[in-house]
Design goal:
Distance between the termini: 16 Å
Structural class: alpha/beta
Number of strands: 14
Strand content: 15-25%
Radius of gyration: 22 Å
Bound molecules: adenosine-5'-diphosphate
Number of domains: 2
CATH class of the largest domain: Alpha Beta
Largest sheet: 8 strands, mixed
Shape: globular
Length: about 400
């Protein structure tokens, strides 16, 4: 039997098909520009002869219902999934589970209603995730479907860490609190780290750094998250590609008064025009690190600000955890940008963080150990795999049915 993982965005559908037995990947695909005049669908898989194959299709895909049909057709043609009945379950990525979901759940009408209720907390993401769920539920309602939430892993964060120092009724009535995101990735790499270190996850403290276009850190004690940098929305915390991360909230009042910016303009400013892009005009870390190396001052500054914020949170989370056994780097930047790993560890030797520069420059797809032999804290680069984690959690739920 097989497990299908769906990640439905507002104009895209990402999917991956796994063999249930060992969760090996059979096929993965992406349909983009749903609703545009021209769409792009792509599927990759390994054929019976062991050759990598790719299918492309540029027919317009007007909506998500059609996208699921295109996906099913491509999977059928590839021979990877000849009939939907071969599926023992479908796992859906859902961005926001609010306080309602602490773990993955089997989807039914009540769950759909609860995800819909959470739309005000994730107005861009939850509706897009819901479309994928509703279409899949309509088409194959008898196949168990599971929602896996980005926020669920952070629901173990204690009250003193998730509450903001605002009037308490804002939490009670408006649910203003820290939720955190990237939970699937943080939980996956934390478990991988424990496995790699051959230690029970219950016994280790780790700091996981998910550094992609969006970036967040998590403090994990014995496998449970106790703090994370993203807040009520993904804007808080680390410096990101186009998001500012932490800032003095009074800057917003100042800019509104002095420049007459309205709420929408401020939202765009902080979410789309800030972060690395705001400092040096570029949000791609590869380009920035190359420019910095060639002496570009703004690129150097952007890199320095990004890494300093990271370093501050490493220190903060060492205090929150009362000591750390392992720091994990993941996401496009965490996995590939050796310069970021070097700069954010620089000067932390007295805290037990000793990077081995040579190991740090090695590039490999598997888990990479980058700490010096005498480093009390293990430093690991672990490629994240959110789809695998969603498939694993989906299977866990199916096994209890
Ligand atoms: P997303 O959050 O969209 O999933 P990714 O995890 O794919 O993003 O990370 C994207 C970031 O990773 C970009 O800033 C990109 O420049 C960076 N990145 C990818 N490869 C490299 C590399 N070889 N060196 C430096 N940065 C890289």
């Amino acid at each position: 039997m097989k497990i299908l993982v769906l990640n439905s965005g507002s104009s895209s559908l990402k999917f991956q098909l796994f063999l249930q037995e060992d969760l090996s990947v059979l096929a993965s695909g992406l349909i983009e520009q749903i609703g545009d005049l021209k769409s792009a669908a792509q599927l990759s898989f390994v054929d019976a002869a062991g050759n990598e194959q790719e299918y492309h299709n540029n027919e317009p895909v007007p909506d998500h219902r059609t996208a699921i049909g295109v996906m099913a057709e491509m999977l059928r043609e590839s021979g990877m999934l000849t009939d939907m009945e071969e599926l023992s379950g479908i796992g859906h990525r859902v961005v926001h589970g609010g306080e309602s979901f602490h773990q993955p759940v089997r989807i039914d009408g009540d769950v759909i209603g609860a995800i819909r209720k959470l739309i005000p907390l994730a107005p861009l993401h939850n509706p897009a995730n819901l479309i994928g769920i509703e279409v899949a539920m309509e088409q194959v309602s008898h196949i168990p479907q599971v929602a896996v939430f980005d926020t669920a892993f952070h629901q173990s964060i204690p009250e003193h860490a998730y509450l903001y120092a605002l009037p308490f009724e804002l939490y009670e009535k408006q649910k203003v609190r820290r939720y955190g995101f990237h939970g699937t990735s943080h939980s996956y790499v934390a478990r991988q780290a424990a496995h790699y270190l051959e230690r029970p996850i219950e016994e280790i403290n780790s700091i996981t750094l998910h550094l992609g276009n969006g970036a967040s850190a998590a403090a994990i004690q014995g496998g449970k998250c106790i703090d994370t940098t993203m807040g009520m929305t993904p804007l808080e915390g680390l410096v990101m590609g186009t998001r500012s991360g932490d800032l003095d909230p009074a800057i917003i009042f100042y800019l509104s008064r002095e420049m007459g910016l309205d709420i929408e303009e401020l939202d765009t400013l902080l979410n789309k025009k800030s972060g690395l892009k705001g400092i040096c005009g570029e949000n791609d870390m590869r380009t920035i690190s190359e420019a910095a190396e060639q002496g570009d001052q703004q690129a150097r500054l952007a890199l320095a600000i990004f890494c300093y914020r990271l370093k501050k949170y490493i220190g903060a989370y060492m205090a929150a955890l009362g000591g750390v056994d392992c720091i994990v780097f993941t996401g496009g930047i965490g996995e590939n940008a050796a310069v970021v790993r070097r700069l954010c560890c620089q000067g932390l030797e007295r805290l037990g963080i000793r990077l081995d520069e040579e190991k740090n420059n090695i590039r490999q797809k598997e888990i990479l150990e980058i700490h010096a032999a005498d480093s009390p804290v293990s430093l690991l680069v672990i490629p994240t795999d959110e789809e695998y984690e969603i498939a694993r959690q989906t299977m866990q739920i199916i096994n209890t049915l």
